[in-house]
């Protein structure tokens, strides 16, 4: 066996492994960046997308022709331009046909092209069909007029365009996403009309700034709509090329028979109802999200309707905020505007992207004008030759007849005395006899005049940069006019950017709390003043066993101090309460404040500040009274602090504000009244029990307590809807701790005393029944009677009804 040949050492090149790995990886990286992952800044397309569109255009799969199988398109692209596998080509084709991926799809798909849910992909390419979308023709318009460079394909058997003419700014309009080696691009889609208007402005104002363009392009516009929160991230992205925007679903709270439900009609870009539902289901199972009873997806086609049904005691606003916080109902979209410029990746701001597109269009129009100019000059040369032929027709015919063959005839026409060029001579020899008529000559003369005008126009465009720019602008506006559409994504202020108080109008509201703990805020204008004795309107829909317990006039920006029977105080803001219609039931208060099982709300107070010279005066059911500086409650929290030390079976009844040394007064259910100087109650700390206000009889207890101010009268209301006004001088001052005097005559028909308030004649009073009926009565319409009088009817009640709560609306002025 002969010895194996020894390798020639002169043909072996020694190289370090690290150097070879670095070189190979660099070549791979450049290939991925340039040939696969990043779009060209001019037409906004990656090579695979450009090849698909050009292949379909070249094969004639246009909007006015029937759809063809996607498998056929994929095969053509793979065999001629993109030898990287059919799966990658089909995935790129599918994305260009999805209306939830592109704002303006470039391919008109027929069949199942998938859904936003990543688990349900498109059908196989052998089942789906496609053709170019009308707007795709605007990307390819003029490609046959030498507007762009063509380069050899992968096997040099044919050529492909290195970029498309792109008569609309596709990169900004449809966006792009891609991951290269060590870099990534994430360009959001934008409204076509807004981007085109911005570019038109840039053409007219070459010195325009990013901020000026942002007047036309306020932010991205996503195919799935939704809400963009805040503008800081948009400004960063447009000025630097990098930023992030918060996207939020469009969700509304609706009232249904079974309670409240959250209805989602638009979702953030690149998520799906199925993904959101799976996340919610997981959070509910892990006890991380409460208040959700069921979920139903009624979405169909391009319409989204995802219904989240809530439990009866759930606060819909709290649940919705938790959904935004914990689920893809609110997401962030990172912006990285990276694209290829002259074959190299560059991060561009809004101005840079627009300027590169304008420069590309100037080059496209310049090359197209040069191409058309050359064609027009060539045709004019031919037409002029044909006209000269007609002028010498007899001599030309004689010369042709005398020639032995076509070559001899052509040579004779090119020689003297004719002097035709070879091109003219060939056209003369090809000219039909019909062109020799007078009509034929007129047609040629008209064509020559038109060609001269066209040549003059094209030469003017090429000679004047401003005129060329005007052509770019006019053609861009004309090409995109029929594709403009309303913005899908709207803007809202990011709640994290501003304090809620800056965004909410301080409108008056009426806060209603039922005995079983349901709370709501209703616009004060929902209740019109009526004459006393009327039936009233439905102020709340309550259960049979429930009744309205508290009604207070407040405002959206006021702080609500909610005092419980156990002597704790919780703080809420008016805008945090569910703002509902007048007849709505409300939401469970336990969703807003952590009430204990044996704790109920006994007093609610609205205030916007905590003056240093003001005190809170507390009255309990067993007759205790306490006075504490109001400033000590400024730091009350949603989870509550101690307001008064309530002992034994006692309960807190009412809390009022004292700014001066007014007299205090307490009222019992049997109609006893005791007026005493507030100076007899010394100021103590929060966690104190207070002192005795009145010596009550067995079976009697305090129903109300308050402070007397100048110019007010006492309004007393019984459980059966009767009431009266009584002057203050009817109640003489006694020392604290006495038994009091009679304040109202009570009978079995008129019931027990349930409420007392201090009013002025111009005020109005809201009276709420145990069944939720509410009436708003002018104080001036209520009789002014003495201490022993039993009062007049204020509200008509059914046999099973009683007055549950009374609230004063001060100085309302006119009817609502």
UniProtKB/TrEMBL annotation:
<dbReference type="GO" id="GO:0005524">
    <property type="term" value="F:ATP binding"/>
</dbReference>
<keyword id="KW-0238">DNA-binding</keyword>
<dbReference type="GO" id="GO:0034335">
    <property type="term" value="F:DNA negative supercoiling activity"/>
</dbReference>
<dbReference type="InterPro" id="IPR002205">
    <property type="entry name" value="Topo_IIA_dom_A"/>
</dbReference>
<dbReference type="Pfam" id="PF03989">
    <property type="entry name" value="DNA_gyraseA_C"/>
</dbReference>
<dbReference type="InterPro" id="IPR013757">
    <property type="entry name" value="Topo_IIA_A_a_sf"/>
</dbReference>
<feature type="coiled-coil region">
    <location>
        <begin position="441"/>
        <end position="475"/>
    </location>
</feature>
<comment type="similarity">
    <text>Belongs to the type II topoisomerase GyrA/ParC subunit family.</text>
</comment>
<keyword id="KW-0799">Topoisomerase</keyword>
<keyword id="KW-0413">Isomerase</keyword>
<dbReference type="GO" id="GO:0005737">
    <property type="term" value="C:cytoplasm"/>
</dbReference>
<dbReference type="InterPro" id="IPR050220">
    <property type="entry name" value="Type_II_DNA_Topoisomerases"/>
</dbReference>
<comment type="subunit">
    <text>Heterotetramer composed of ParC and ParE.</text>
</comment>
<protein>
    <recommendedName>
        <fullName>DNA topoisomerase (ATP-hydrolyzing)</fullName>
        <ecNumber>5.6.2.2</ecNumber>
    </recommendedName>
</protein>
<dbReference type="InterPro" id="IPR035516">
    <property type="entry name" value="Gyrase/topoIV_suA_C"/>
</dbReference>
<keyword id="KW-0175">Coiled coil</keyword>
<dbReference type="InterPro" id="IPR013760">
    <property type="entry name" value="Topo_IIA-like_dom_sf"/>
</dbReference>
<dbReference type="InterPro" id="IPR006691">
    <property type="entry name" value="GyrA/parC_rep"/>
</dbReference>
<dbReference type="GO" id="GO:0006265">
    <property type="term" value="P:DNA topological change"/>
</dbReference>
<dbReference type="Pfam" id="PF00521">
    <property type="entry name" value="DNA_topoisoIV"/>
</dbReference>
<feature type="domain" description="Topo IIA-type catalytic">
    <location>
        <begin position="38"/>
        <end position="503"/>
    </location>
</feature>
<dbReference type="InterPro" id="IPR013758">
    <property type="entry name" value="Topo_IIA_A/C_ab"/>
</dbReference>
<feature type="active site" description="O-(5'-phospho-DNA)-tyrosine intermediate">
    <location>
        <position position="127"/>
    </location>
</feature>
<dbReference type="GO" id="GO:0003677">
    <property type="term" value="F:DNA binding"/>
</dbReference>
<dbReference type="GO" id="GO:0009330">
    <property type="term" value="C:DNA topoisomerase type II (double strand cut, ATP-hydrolyzing) complex"/>
</dbReference>
